[in-house]
Amino acid sequence: MRHLDSDLLRSFLAVADAGSITGGAHFVHRSQSALSLQVGQLEELLGKPVFVRHGRGVGLTEAGEALLPVARRIVQTLDRTRAEIGGTGLAGRLRIGIPEEHGARHLPIIIGRFVRSHPAAELMVRSANSAEFPAALAAGKLDMAIHEVETITKQMTLLREVPLGWVGSRSHPVAEDGTLPVALFDRACWWRDAAIRSLEKCERDYRVVLTSESAGGIAAAIEAGIAVGILDCSRLPTKLVPLTTIPDLAALPSSRLVLEMAATSVSPLAKALAETVIRSYGDTIEL
Questions:
Q1: Do 56 and 105 form a contact (C-beta atoms < 8 A)?
Q2: pTM over 0.85
Q3: Do 183 and 228 lie in a common domain?
Q4: How many domains does the chain have?
């Protein structure tokens, strides 16, 4: 009788975390065909499929959902044992902030890679509104954080450029004249100041109809047709479109998604986590 191999479990976790065979292959540095073969072997051993295929990638079946926590526990136990016996990996505790809207896509990849390399380490993840992170870093409540800035400092590493733009609803066009209804971020976010400067430069009358601390709230107001607002134009939902009907709106500055380190985060463990974050964001952007 054949037994489950830890390599098969690692391949299963890579695909589950990435949400696709292509992404999983990229993360474990194997070809798609090799990874597909391992998934097939795993399903043959279990006698049930662990993934259901769809147009955008794969999702877990009922059997896959049952296997997921077991596979994580086995792989983490093996990695921790190897580190303890062989003296590999780093130990300690780190606190990282990641925007809540990034959590579903990036967090499993970051955690999976880092914990497998440093099983004795402990991560404390704060997934929240990223406007809170600079103050938390300054107060020593976080070791590092991912957030968006207008200007980069020496403590920051650029993860990607974010093209900001005025956005409207595809189904509910905003009138080209009269007072412009706008949705703004709250005062903790510099995107609010950028939006107001843009409105003032084009000398357009406007009124604030909604204030939100999250991009989700701004997008909902725009989709409902009650306002326009500024968002990341590279990742717009299908129901939102760049606003071209009001060409006199002033241009917006680019936003920069960065990883910022606290001034005290100079340990080898902190540097290792920073490297994992930078590589994970780079890989996900490529995919």
A1: no
A2: no
A3: yes
A4: 3
